[in-house]
Design brief:
The chain is mainly alpha-helical and 225 residues long. It has 2 domains: 133 residues, no CATH class; 69 residues, no CATH class. Helices cover 72% and strands 8% of the residues. Strands 1-3-2 form a 3-stranded antiparallel sheet. A hairpin with a 2-residue loop joins strand 2 and strand 3. Helix 2 packs antiparallel against helix 6, helix 3 runs parallel beside helix 6 and helix 7 packs antiparallel against helix 8. The longest helix is centred in the last third of the chain and has 32 residues. It is globular and about 70 Å long. The chain starts with a helix and ends in a 9-residue tail after the last helix.
Length: 225
């Protein structure tokens, strides 16, 4: 069981209706999209503190989890902040490169700031949801919302294969570490290539075994939900 999944099953709000938590989460997302940056900051601080308490996680670990989507957020903001033009008019900061100017305009800075606070607050609210709603409760919510059965089944299968992928990765990685496979840059690249190759074949092998086991149980194409 993944650590995040384990925390979701042991959080302080486990007895609360998943429907209530889902509605609360959607309302928070709507508020984060529509509110001003100062309101988004307040929501982030409050929801973050509540998540740490409810999920019973350490602040340091929680902050590390928040850094996971940070590279994607930074790349998105940088593409919005910087513009390229043949003249420097309108830039509040610019750099000349090959007779062109790369810089930041007042409007792009304003948009980048709004995007940062909006994205950060939505991520924090999402962490609250995934750390307080176990996967089986999420499936119940999806079913009560009358979402297509195919979508629910695909979600369940994707969730299952996350565990398969993570389990196989840890087994292979542990075996390579015991043989000092990641000692040195050259060995690290070779071990990484072998890991990806074996992981690809092992995942497909586990998938075939799962299909075989379902056929032995007279699987007819529909999972009971």
């Amino acid at each position: 069981m993944l650590l995040i999944d384990k925390i979701a099953y042991e959080n302080r709000l486990i007895e609360l209706s998943p429907g209530v938590k889902s509605i609360f989460y959607l309302c928070l997302l709507a508020l984060c999209f529509l509110a001003a940056p100062i309101i988004q900051v307040v929501i982030s601080v409050i929801v973050g503190a509540v998540t740490v308490y409810v999920a019973k996680v350490k602040v340091k670990r929680y902050l590390k989890w928040l850094l996971v989507p940070a590279p994607f957020l930074v790349i998105s903001i940088l593409t919005i902040l910087f513009s390229i033009s043949s003249n420097s008019n309108g830039f509040i900061f610019d750099i000349s490169v090959f007779h062109h100017f790369i810089g930041i305009t007042e409007s792009s800075l304003h948009l980048g700031v709004r995007l940062f606070f909006r994205s950060a607050s939505c991520v924090i609210c999402t962490y609250f949801f995934i750390l307080t709603v176990p996967f089986h409760q999420l499936l119940l919510v999806m079913k009560k919302a009358h979402l297509p059965a195919l979508l629910i089944e695909l979600t369940m299968l994707m969730y299952r294969f996350i565990f398969i992928f993570a389990e196989e990765f840890l087994i292979i990685k542990r075996a390579q570490d015991m043989r000092f496979g990641f000692k040195g840059i050259r060995n690290s690249y070779q071990s990484l290539g072998v890991l990806i190759k074996i992981l690809f074949f092992q995942t497909f092998d586990r998938f075939n075994k799962m299909i075989l086991s379902l056929e032995m149980k007279f699987f007819e194409g529909d999972f009971p939900l």
